[in-house]
Amino acid sequence: MATMTLVQAIHAALSFEMGRDPGVVILGQDVGRYGGVFRATEGLWDRFGPERVLDTPLNEAGIVGMAIGMALNGLRPVAEIEFVDFIYPAFDQIVSELAKFRYRSAGQFTAPIVVRAPSGGGIKGGHYHSQSPEAYFIHTAGLTVVMPSTPADAKGLLISAIRSADPVIFLEPKALYRTAKGEVPDGDYTVPLGKSRSVRPGEDVSLIAYGAMVHVAEEAATLAAEEGIGVDVIDLRTLWPMDIDAVVQSVKMTGRAVVLHEAPRTCGFGAELSALIQEKAFLHLKAPVARVTGFDTPFPYALEKLYLPDPRRVLDSIRSTINF
To answer: Which residue in the list 129, 139, 215, 284 is annotated as catalytic?
Structure first.
């Protein structure tokens, strides 16, 4: 196994799948000669040529619309949106067309497309390069939504996403692109969609997170352990369909739950998680489900560190839940 950063693992997955399946194509702004804004596709244009690594105009609706046409004609396109903040011009193509082909055709047609997009804050990108809109896509029936937190999961989940018969929104926490490092299995390696990962065990409170917040959760759990509190940390990995069985099993054991994400609080994915937990584990709860999230404001530039949940804010929520 090689040690990689998260963005290197993304590159490894794309390179492997393109070499394995000639139907896999990449398209997006600057993905070709330039190698992508974060260099996730660097060198692929040279290796596979401009017919399989397509530089497109700056037109997100056109990128996704073209990918849909490719998928319906037998290809497996991977469409890159430079930042998830710019995905909104393609929103109609994604939610009104891409997500509905299997349903509207009664299973006769599928749209095996992966839409990759860097997501979240942590790089001083300001409010046009730091948003976390995962809830919009989770809300849309027909889409699988994925967000890895480690290089190994990034490779394994992306390969699984490319091979999926249905469309996948693959959100990549840009704050982890070069800060998250770890061993990544060589060759053909997959992580199943829809399965969470147990990060560390604990018996006092369940802490559910995804993406960059998994590492914040780990730090908070370490601080809590110094106070004698055992935190069971779960990395969702696939946000939808979610591994609710693993979450419920954890909450039934601990009796307490804290949900963590950097997206705004109101109607964020944490609200759905909280509702599912109380529906399926209500009689086991010793305290209300707590949420630690971003705020209901545009993502701030100067106050980025205040906006993003940090280990101390998570620890405060853990304490409040324990002391309820």
So the answer is: 129
